[in-house]
Amino acid sequence: MTTTIPVAGGAFAPYEVVVGRGLLKMAGAEVAALKPTRAFIVSDETVAAIHGETVRASLEGAGLATGIVTVPAGEASKSFEQLEAVLDRLLAEGLDRKSLVVALGGGVVGDLAGLAAALFMRGIDFVQIPTTLLAQVDSSVGGKTAIDTPRGKNLIGAFHQPRRVLADIEALATLPARQVRSGWAEVLKHGLICDAAFFDWLGGEGAAGAQGDPDALERAVIRSVEIKAQIVGEDEKEAGRRALLNLGHTFGHALEAELAFDETLTHGEAVALGCAMAFRYSARQGLCPAVEAERAEAGIRAAGLPTRLSDVAHAFAADALIARMAGDKKAEGGRLTLILARAVGDAFTDKDVDAEAVRAFLIEEGAA
Ligand SMILES: NC(=O)c1ccc[n+]([C@@H]2O[C@H](COP(=O)([O-])OP(=O)(O)OC[C@H]3O[C@@H](n4cnc5c(N)ncnc54)[C@H](O)[C@@H]3O)[C@@H](O)[C@H]2O)c1
Ligand SMILES: O=C(O)C(=O)C[C@@H](O)[C@H](O)[C@H](O)COP(=O)(O)O
Ligand SMILES: [Zn+2]
Prior knowledge:
The chain has helices at residues 27-32, 45-61, 80-92, 107-119, 133-139, 177-194, 196-203, 214-234, 249-258, 267-284, 290-302, 318-326, 355-364; strands at 3-7, 15-20, 39-44, 66-71, 100-105, 125-130, 144-149, 152-159, 164-168, 336-343, 346-353. The chain is α/β, with parallel strands linked by helices. It folds into 2 domains: 2-172, Rossmann fold, CATH 3.40.50; 179-365, Dehydroquinate synthase-like - alpha domain (Dehydroquinate synthase-like, alpha domain, Up-down Bundle), CATH 1.20.1090.10. Ligand LNCXM5UN binds next to β7 and β8. This is 3-dehydroquinate synthase.
């Protein structure tokens, strides 16, 4: 059985996210229905070794000319160097404007392949086949594509919506436990933003999902995609409400950049810690009851995710973090923007954050 969630808003061509089991084997029929001249897979070396042949065979079985280009697994592949390598391969393979890119992998592959598709001949179609929990619940939906630079996270990119998203729950069976928890962070984030009952379910009946239980995972993917689809449908380019999806990211991206995007923190772990910090900062500023910040932190920590700077083996400097936050894409005219909360399930955007208050908060949190 599959669940189909529409992503539609009028600002872009509508598409559907299909969630179910066995979808990798059905990729050929799904992609062939879009009638591309070719369907070229972009993946990473780890995912290609596990799932590449299933998808390639399915595409070929549906009569599609195909091929595959891989990048090394990991955040470092969201780079100009790998973007150029992928684009060069697409050119060398002779893809045309009616060819289609199949992004097979986690958020790194989806962001990189999506940006390559946005740039190739000024934009060709792409289909997302997310193989991490994080990519299924978040990065494959909504059309944000990007690479990092040493100056910051996702600073070079484009909005380019996929034509279809195929989220195969069975693909998650091979995902390492750390990566399941990392994706769970973005799931928790969706509850923290706008669905307190979902957040409580994730910490109760649904908690087995954080340990990889496929039924709980499927429900978590479906609810997350419903929430994200509704928000991006209203606000594709983050003019307003979409910024809520950035809860935990202003802190989280600053931490990732300070760590040079190494493996000390995954993106999901940085977001988990960033969400806990956003709630504590909200409580400190009198915007949210302390008990709600504790509720948020307890739910995150129960899933085995970090909630405190002291959970990370690195000495962060408050000024360096503030400088990173000032370079965040939400900052306007030098003013910091933060996504804050009134309670679990009730996030809001504050576009006029006092940098001195954040600095004092970071020092209280343990930054130097
Ligand atoms: N575009 C968006 O809206 C959006 C949203 C959230 C996150 N992101 C981005 O997504 C990236 C993080 O994505 P991620 O957490 O998926 O990391 P990832 O893509 O690096 O994947 C994590 C690891 O899991 C491996 N892997 C993937 N699927 C597997 C499978 N089925 N079995 C075994 N191993 C598998 C990968 O090879 C990699 O080593 C970050 O760069 C983040 O900025 C983008
Ligand atoms: O889709 C969105 O919008 C998000 O903010 C989702 C985030 O989880 C994701 O990490 C996104 O890539 C962050 O976007 P950015 O604009 O802060 O780079
Ligand atoms: Zn994120």
